Amino acid sequence: MSILSLRRINKKYGQAKVFAVNEVSFDVEEGEILALVGESGSGKTTLLRLIAGLEHPDDGTISLAGQVIVQGKESVPPHDRKVGMVFQDYALFPHLTILENVTFGIAKSKGNPEQLAKDTLKLVGLTEDFKKYPHQLSGGQQQRVALARAIAPNPRILLMDEPFSNLDAMLKDQVREEIRQIIKKTGITAIFVTHDTKDALSTADRIAILHKGYLQQIDIPKNLYETPVNPYVANFFGKRNELLATPSEDGFYTSFGFITDLEAKKYKRQVKLLFRPEHGEVVQREGQQLSGKIVKVSYFGSHQLVKISDDEGFRVTIRTNPGRIFDEVERTFFYLWKYDIEEAF
Ligand SMILES: Nc1ncnc2c1ncn2[C@@H]1O[C@H](COP(=O)(O)OP(=O)(O)OP(=O)(O)O)[C@@H](O)[C@H]1O
């Protein structure tokens, strides 16, 4: 069931010439984790602030948990929306202990606020540092306090702005997994903003990708990566190779050789074969494969990227396992096991 629904949301700031958010519509399902991704200035934070009520759209409707919270000029004020927010810098009160930080937002709630704060801190994995101050905690721990503070009032939805950007690379993988598990354990619906595709692919159930304020695609990570709706989305998740090819009855002629493919006869004019580095395989045997000269091998620990050039110097990149040893300038064979076909012109 959808808990949040945005319909044709537009937002332009003051005298700006272009809209920060353009005609954006989507639904978020209950219990889902949605990542909002896009390059800098694409409208991610604006969208989050519109949902939180920190900005008001020029047009559009927003409904949360069955209640219309924005329509035309009317809107429910932020404190009545029951939205939890985790800010990029965590925004903890430096002069309050972590227990006081979490109790602060629920002080007026029924029952025993301090016990609820303690229980929520335990839920996020902080069991004994209740009396410490934020500066005495690591970045990852501070983030968990911010998360506890946001979820303690039992919000309808949790919004997080760049939650992983202040963490170093070593910590990031671990924190992503922990945060995902905590959110899933509570069953809360969450939306987080990130410009890092790894954050989105590894943490979210679905990803919404924005470009210049327009929603490009919203789907599960695998579909965004494997079946992007346009070149912008495809390239956002890692560069694709683009190889020009001439179709014939039984395959494609390329500058690296011939690829047998009966799909080719559907095309009348030159096409582009689009493929990611992991959709090719470098092989030793000669056969129905493509061939070229290895011009560069880059080692990344978990894999290698091999740049292969045709006779004219045009290059494609193929990913291989890290154990293979290649000589640069070696002639090699490779094949593509997956590619998209697009009209070239
Ligand atoms: N308060 C503001 N006043 C005027 N323009 C703004 C304001 N906030 C954002 N903008 C503009 O709106 C557009 C979208 O900005 P927004 O911050 O939503 O993008 P973003 O995708 O979150 O970017 P980043 O990743 O850099 O935070 C940008 O062109 C930005 O310059």
Automatic annotation (TrEMBL):
GO terms for biological process: quaternary ammonium group transport. Keywords: ATP-binding, Cell membrane, Ion transport, Iron, Iron transport, Membrane, Nucleotide-binding, Transport. The keyword Transport applies. GO terms for cellular component: ATP-binding cassette (ABC) transporter complex. One of its GO terms (molecular function) is ABC-type ferric iron transporter activity. Residues 4-237 form the ABC transporter domain. This is Iron(III) transport system ATP-binding protein.
